[in-house]
User: Fold these one by one.
Assistant:
Number 1:
Amino acid sequence: MNRALIKRFSARDAEILPSLFYNLKADLPMLPKPPLHPGTGQPIQPSDLEPIFPKGFIAQEGTMERYIPIPAEVLEKYAVYRPTPLIYASNLRKSLGTPAHIFYKYEGVGPMGSHKSNTALMQAFLAAQEGVETLVTETGAGQWGSALAHAGSLFGIKVKVFMVRVSYRQKPGRRILMELFGAEVKESPSEATAFGKTLFAQDHDHPGSLGIAISEALEMATQGIRSKYSIGSVSDAVLLHQSVIGLEAEKQMAAAGMEPETIIGCVGGGSNFSGIAFPFVRKNLVEGKNIRIIAVEPEACPSLTEGELRYDHGDTAGMTPLLFMHTLGKDFIPAPIHAGGLRYHGMAPLVSHLVTLGIVKPKAYSQEKIFEAGSLFYKTEGILPAPESSHAIAAAIDEALAAKKEGKERVILFNLSGHGFLDINAYAKNR
Amino acid sequence: MNRALIKRFSARDAEILPSLFYNLKADLPMLPKPPLHPGTGQPIQPSDLEPIFPKGFIAQEGTMERYIPIPAEVLEKYAVYRPTPLIYASNLRKSLGTPAHIFYKYEGVGPMGSHKSNTALMQAFLAAQEGVETLVTETGAGQWGSALAHAGSLFGIKVKVFMVRVSYRQKPGRRILMELFGAEVKESPSEATAFGKTLFAQDHDHPGSLGIAISEALEMATQGIRSKYSIGSVSDAVLLHQSVIGLEAEKQMAAAGMEPETIIGCVGGGSNFSGIAFPFVRKNLVEGKNIRIIAVEPEACPSLTEGELRYDHGDTAGMTPLLFMHTLGKDFIPAPIHAGGLRYHGMAPLVSHLVTLGIVKPKAYSQEKIFEAGSLFYKTEGILPAPESSHAIAAAIDEALAAKKEGKERVILFNLSGHGFLDINAYAKNR
């Protein structure tokens, strides 16, 4: 068969879909500083987290095992959309006139159009296992909230979502997606929590932030009966679940007969980035490879490139453990950019740690630049990317143009974390 | 590997993606009555079509060859999204409590979210081959228009689209998708054509219809220089291109170790239905199988179930050849239902022929019923279906419930022609 045809590098699906998650912590030369109890300032104990998370989740948060089996019930749900395709961006390549080989892993084929189901399904499963009846969470752009609403409906869990007000108003479609699953969606800051009320009273049009929405979700989750909190990014366990992205990509790149020299993902809390990157970080750490790994964030919310590295709360009210991470401060309210999923003041501690170790290079792009990149990608590859994912595209284009300047055949792999069918208005405004 | 995991029945992609289109006409015991010249009333000659279509397209419209090679340039574009997944609907099955095995072929992973790219890419390629610079077309819900806009942008062809006014207003997102590719989109009836002007003058809010939009597109296409008309359904060549759906499904069902006993597709002009069905019609005709084949249309536009079988024009102005088909009359204006892609007064002559021969059973469903089916599918399978595709789902559910009543393990395969991410407002209104 014609070589040009081999664009979707999947071998038999069952050979590509992993049956184990990969835990980068098992291969790190040193661990990040531990989370601290917000009251005592002492390293957090698993039991401290029990009011917040299901026990199965807490175990995965703390595990040092290298590989964690994916339960059959979750694998069965993954198999509906995984393995996701790895695609060779031949049209984008042509339009850039670059000798670089550009590949993207397309997570937009996930049920709700993004990578978020990878952890949502796992979390809903773990919760259902121990009789949890309600999961409460926050969402920015709504990708996470809709993924959890879907997962909850599959595993018989009621889902309540605090949606950042600016996204709630920009993206009504995502709210409807959640409600169609039977989820309850509140615009945050809301009047449903003590913390939300104080902010809502000050300003009924308060744009909200992920930090505020997390506080509201935590408050409601910990006050309810058989109710727990569910988190879409940042935590070690979430990053563990997302490793399926990179594990598949590793096998698919091998099937394509190419080794990536540069890996790119966008970062908000760090989950899709870690998903694509960590299995390749392993290659750097364990196999002595020298893969360049780039995390791309918005200039409007530059935690890695301009934040401080220090202990800070994951939420605005200061209810979460203190996390050692790059932060813009828990009270930071980012501008209402369209990449709502990247509007987070902090960063996954594991990603911050890799930046500190020099293993991950951070980069920031403007909204203008990422819409330009997203539009070019759409015109050439025919997929409308989510504004979040367009950050990765913008960096991939810059890398491909650098390779052109140097006349080098670099191999670039980026994660296309989601599609933009629900962000069309943003494209209409930014064309 | 766990049997439950084998939900996406693809073997190696390159083994599933067909390299030939299948032409049902080569296996028909008798052909449908030929199209007639609108002026002379005589059977149409290929040369009569030259002002309208590219010559390569006309050749495919008339061919009696059983298999037609797919050009390498088109296969390369297909390979970005094909083979599309065949999915076992285990969650839907569970919720219905049926012993039936329900499979769906998911065309919503196509670039613009539907099956329409299968013929759009081929038509843009054929046009580019002979120096055509502009393709003009019509679109209902916008799935066809956006697929052609995408294909045109890949093959360097300017695309102009007349979009039925009611859909233009219901689905602004689809218009933006087309415009982002550089396509020109006009709301039809428009002032850009003589025919459109007469209707627009009578009523500036004229809801339009596919028949009217076709007339406008034909008028503009035939008056332009190096400009041709492109059609999204109905014609034999379009049905030929769509055969990739059923050809893949055939191999994927074999990989799943099951033979479908019932095949279901929704019908407007007939293209996605024919795509899934014709390779299985072949099994009935050539291999002596007895597969039930069901075409589902909206009650609001019931050409197969309530239309007359006679010669009629494909468009409202009477510019197209006379087609022998089930028709509600070229002046029929269907109610503004959300399944804009099914609001067509006529039917593909080949589909009408199969209904006449008793090989295809037609069925009609109400909008209420299809939104109910679509919502249940969404809640169980996690994919929001296009309202068009929900017609097929509704029939699949009824078949599965009938199997439950009889206590039989029927194998049902339906085509999920597209996703509904751009139809969320319709779901919001119909919940």
Number 2:
Amino acid sequence: MKIGFIGTGIMGRPMAGHLQAAGHELFLLKRKSPPPQELIDGGATLCETSAEIARAADLVITMVPNTPEVEEVLFGPDGVASGLGAGKTVIDMSSIDPIATQGFAARIEALGSAYADAPVSGGEVGAKAASLTIMVGARPETFDRIKPILELMGKNITLIGDPGSGQIAKVANQIIVALNIEAVSEALLFASRAGADPAKVREALMGGFASSRILEVHGERMIKRTFDPGFRIRLHQKDLDLALSGAKALGLSLPNTASAQQLFSACVAHGGADWDHSAMVRALETLADHQVA
Amino acid sequence: MKIGFIGTGIMGRPMAGHLQAAGHELFLLKRKSPPPQELIDGGATLCETSAEIARAADLVITMVPNTPEVEEVLFGPDGVASGLGAGKTVIDMSSIDPIATQGFAARIEALGSAYADAPVSGGEVGAKAASLTIMVGARPETFDRIKPILELMGKNITLIGDPGSGQIAKVANQIIVALNIEAVSEALLFASRAGADPAKVREALMGGFASSRILEVHGERMIKRTFDPGFRIRLHQKDLDLALSGAKALGLSLPNTASAQQLFSACVAHGGADWDHSAMVRALETLADHQVA
């Protein structure tokens, strides 16, 4: 299939590579930070504009940093929308605002094309290993059609519902991950300060109702003080911004998400924008003048 | 072995039953709310005071509601301490204050007896099935000696460290459980209010970094609106009180534990003291004028 891929950065580059390796013909943007040489060597076509990509390809995938960039790529001058004809498909795999996404989908569908939002989790490691978790918002017929393409990049691929709901699931995921990190931070800090060995406490708790993937992975990072990313605090902050601005727009109160975001800000204030998100525990340690380990 | 068992309520009754069934000789308190008939029929000896129990038995187990009751039973008039000789063992299986526990242990050890704190999780179901998780604070030689007794009542039995550390682990467990419930509540409420099916979102998230026992069990309760206990909010409030008063004494700040406790209080204000703790989501729903399902 002819696939346009806009955004071949840390995540997009290996993802596009998997598509090319499977025999798909890639169309990339020439003027964006120079496209990866291995994709050009593999036969990718370079285009001057996003509109040109949309005219040449059957399917356009976007993988860019934030909501304004998706909007610019899709609807800006010479954007994807201006090159779309009927019967094409746009998949936005960026992690962006779910509410804005619903609007983007409606505008693309009005042009006679299909839209899917398919944000991922699993990071650079998952992108390289083609083992990403992919949460999809799409019409069922669109999902059936794009699923074989998504399967080249990920493993756990779930249709959540209509367009926008993939992004909703991604935000929900990032809320839970942040708050579970916060939970493990408070618990291990309490245990350590009260005089117990946090490693023993973590071990004892893993079999019961307190068990979680975060206790397992991030709990260990807190105890071993290994805060190299992993997943960077500044990226998780971006996700919680989506949760909090979404909550405000929807008339919701998310008190612990707000609190977790403030703790991330405290990390950033201490130079931690690029620490792993498990380093949220450091913000609590600063408040307590005691370290978990 | 001759075992005194003080506190044969909802939890203690089946636990004492397992000990008796394994051939141990029980000593119970006559004046406490009448001891269970099946234990008397099974040959238990009734004693007038806790001191008399301590004189008669080699091992005394306490399973009572809170810190003041443990203190009263151990150190009050005609309490366990006044009947202890050298070489006996006290195991407190109640869930109480870890810092007070360190003091109780020191006082019992000063009398020449051994002390272990061994709080449990798993509730009435676990007590009846002898499948409780037991977190133990004890000297290693005491742990080795009491382990066969604990194995009659539970399955996951972990020595955390010195006396007091079993209670520390239990508080840490209850912090994580409460905050993971809060996390799942915020995430599912966001997802639902934004227009996605919370059941689909939960399903999609179960395979990734957001996965937890709470997402699995309590997330389902929130979606199915099944808030019969389970574990009662008023009991979880008692545990978070230990966390928060402990934190204050230790010079710690636990912002999200404090927030979760306030949400439990909001449930109680709406008649929910005996709702299952997963009903914490209702407090957030009240703030939002929207229900998860």
